[in-house]
Amino acid sequence: MKKFWQELDKRYVGLSVCLVFSVCVVVAFYQVADNFTVIVSSIASFVSSFLSASMPIIFGIIIAYLLNRPCKWMERLLKKAGFFQKRSRLCRLVAVLGVNISTLAMLVLFCYALVPNMIMSMNSIAERGEELIAPIEKVIRDIANTGFVAELMNFAQLDIQADFMVKILNMGRQLVSEFSTYILSFLIDTGTLLYNAFFGFVAAIYINVDIDNIKRQTTRFIRVLFPKKYGSMVYVTNLANDIFFKYIVGKGICSIIVGCMSLLGCIVFGIEYASFISLIIGVTNMIPTFGPIFGAIPACLFAALSGIDKALIMLIMIIIIQQIDPNILAPKIIGGIVDLNGFWILVSIIVCGHFFGIIGMIIGIPLFATLKILIRQWLERKEFMASVAASLPDEDFI
């Protein structure tokens, strides 16, 4: 009898625990559902604050990745000297410091030469905004007064000057009047970027100096977690690393050359705000396919401050440069590392741009190129296994 009551007590205890747990789950679910928006906003705020605080470290990882190969090249060069042959730690430190300091010095000189001129150009554009609107207004009026367009507008019962032009020009005037606000926002963002970049370089020095230990620890961690998939993960990582590095660095070099060509063309043809326009063209050139379009629109608008003829020259110059970039520069610098046709390039830009913005549009092509190689190799392996299985006699499968 005593044993029966003991077993009954155990049953009731188990049922009570299950009941309490179920009630807690229901209450917790109700509270989460009732405060879902608050919870999501709190999580988003925490993630945003965490990323903002971690941005120098993120910059450091990116800088360390981009400068890792130049550091290795410098280290190999220094080891040829007798002094560094038996001092590998010191050799690594000198190589990393030399590459990072040289890169930082070039960026500082670039900013010193370009940023003041760019700020002056932006202030001048804000002051001369009405001059930018007036030529566009004149062109629209001339188009509206041509016979065919006027008849078409009358047939559609539209007044291009009263409706379309007024709305567009008012929008343009509003943007120009708020340009000083954009300048202030740009300066604040630039200051934050420089702060993150400086401490990123400091973090990159520590990362590249201790890169061997970091690799060893990461390798050990992955081996323990994924012992069966370790070889495949190493192969995929090396493949992606090779494609991403060559594409991003190559695209960056092409964009610098494109920016310099634009600067030279602006100086030769007497287009004002040459440094500002060339910076826009060079930066937007990093975005495949759509980048030149994004850069051509503001470049031609700012060139219009020097006259409509200068805007036309700017447009022709951009078209010529964009023929040189994909047909001459990219094959020589980037090579055939990205073996994608036009359709998949478009898909990669749209999909990755939707999820990751501008950064996604830049990294979309190397990401899809890596996926294409992996899928092709997987298909080849499956086809080979199928052909081997088909060549075996039927009795081997019994």
DSSP helix count?
13
Rg calc? 30 Å
Provide the low-confidence segments as ranges: none
Q: What's the N-to-C terminus distance?
A: 61 Å
Mean pLDDT: 76
The proportion of residues forming helix, as a percent range, comes to over 70%
- The ordered string of helix (H) and strand (E) elements is HHHHHHHHHHHHH
Secondary-structure-based class equals mainly alpha
Q: Report the portion of residues in β strands.
A: under 5%
Assign an overall shape: globular
Short synopsis of the structure:
With 398 residues, the chain is mainly alpha-helical. The chain has helices at 2-34, 36-79, 88-127, 129-145, 147-155, 164-177, 179-209, 211-225, 230-268, 274-284, 291-303, 308-333, 342-391.
Describe the protein in words.
The protein is an all-alpha fold and 398 residues long. Helix content is 86%, strand content 0%. The chain is built from 13 helices and no strands. The longest helix has 50 residues, at 342-391.
Strands, helices and their partners?
Layout: H1 2-34, H2 36-79, H3 88-127, H4 129-145, H5 147-155, H6 164-177, H7 179-209, H8 211-225, H9 230-268, H10 274-284, H11 291-303, H12 308-333, H13 342-391
Helix pairs in contact: 2-3, 2-7, 3-7, 4-6, 9-10, 9-12, 9-13, 10-11, 11-12
Question: What distinguishing features does this structure have?
Answer:
globular; 398 residues; 13 helices; mainly alpha
